[in-house]
Amino acid sequence: MLTFLALTSVVLLGIVPEQSQAIAIYTGWERHALVGSDIRLSCSFFSWRWTSEDVTFSWTYRPDGSRDSISIFHYTGGAAYVDNKGPFRDRLEFVGNPGRRDGSILLKNLELNDNGTFTCDAKNPPDIVGRPSSVRLLVFEKVPIQAGVITGAIIGVVLGLLVLIVVIYYLMRFLVARRVFSLSVSKHGKKKKEGSQQRQGPVPPADPSKIKV
Amino acid sequence: MLILLAAIFVLHIACIIILLTATIDNAWWVITAGNAPTDIWARWIFVNNSWHSVDLPSQYPESYLQAVQASSVLACIFSIIGIFVFVAQLFTLPKGQRFLVSGVFQFLACLCIMIAASIYTDRFHTDEQNLGSYGHCFILAWIAFALTFISSIIYFVLRKKTAE
């Protein structure tokens, strides 16, 4: 079984790179942040080729409601070039590691105007065919709780209380039964000693395991 | 005896079905303009010849909406647990005993759906009475309250006659 798996994986690895040279770029889907906070927009890629020295990352920004994108970051030839004229001047920092295929950027001191879509495009020559990936940034005055969380919390708490009550009930029953059992055993033991001196046997105590509540 | 048992079982199943419909179907209120059913999870609007599901308006009192959602879901859960408990008790209860635990679960379900329907009646659409009317889920919620109440009373009163 193991050898079969190994063989198929080797075959697949041999076949697939010849056919799909596309690079796959991964960013988040949507990010929520508070006004004034910092946020790290992550971007990484998957490529069948080794990470080349000419790997490039570029980020573009399109504000909400606008059709134009503006380029805000570019990494090429081992150097990172951040926005020094646009809406993110002095607020953008490169925190990625291109050697590890990480092209993340850090946006500092967010404003409400920063709502928009950030697109990351990475190229790993000769693997250059790929689709850029976008992450949507939403900046809030106050981070809202998602709609279903409170409802789910109420349901969970009530059911949890119910389970707790049932467990406690059965625990009490178990403890009480054990106490009654141990009491009756000690009583039975004493009576047996007295009974062996007398001819008449004592009335045996009720079996606690048969008591039904 | 068997017929009575079957009738009680069918009543409980009917309660579950009614509770589930009332919780899931999103038609506690119908807006006359556009015949748009709404509540408690989303709203349906008819735009461009097709129905679209949209979020409820943010003017809804949020905490009350979540209370209605939570308690109607809890009513369904309690009723469903109750039917399993009833079947279990049918086979394990000693002769002459009452179906107390099943009755308790049905009563909890009754309580929860009553809470949901009451909050909805009192807090929602209070000044929109001429803009819409109550939908079928709302009516089913109140019917479910009555049926679960009757069902729980029956469980509290019923005694196990034959050993099964």
Overview of this structure, please?
The complex is a heterodimer of chains A (about 210) and B (about 160). With about 210 residues, chain A is of the alpha+beta class. Chain A folds into 2 domains: about 20-140, Immunoglobulins (Immunoglobulin-like); about 145-175. Chain A is about 30% helix and about 30% strand. Chain A is built from 2 helices and 12 strands. Chain A has helices spanning about 1-20, 145-195; strands at about 25, 30-35, 40, 45, 55-65, 70-75, 80, 90-95, 105, 115-125, 130, 135-140. In chain A, strand 5 (about 55-65) and strand 6 form a beta hairpin. The longest helix of chain A has about 50 residues, at about 145-195. The radius of gyration of chain A is 35 Å and the shape is elongated. The longest helix of chain B has about 30 residues, at about 60-90. The radius of gyration of chain B is 19 Å and the shape is elongated. The chains are: A alpha+beta (about 210), B mainly alpha (about 160). The interface of A and B includes residues 150, 158 and 159 of A.
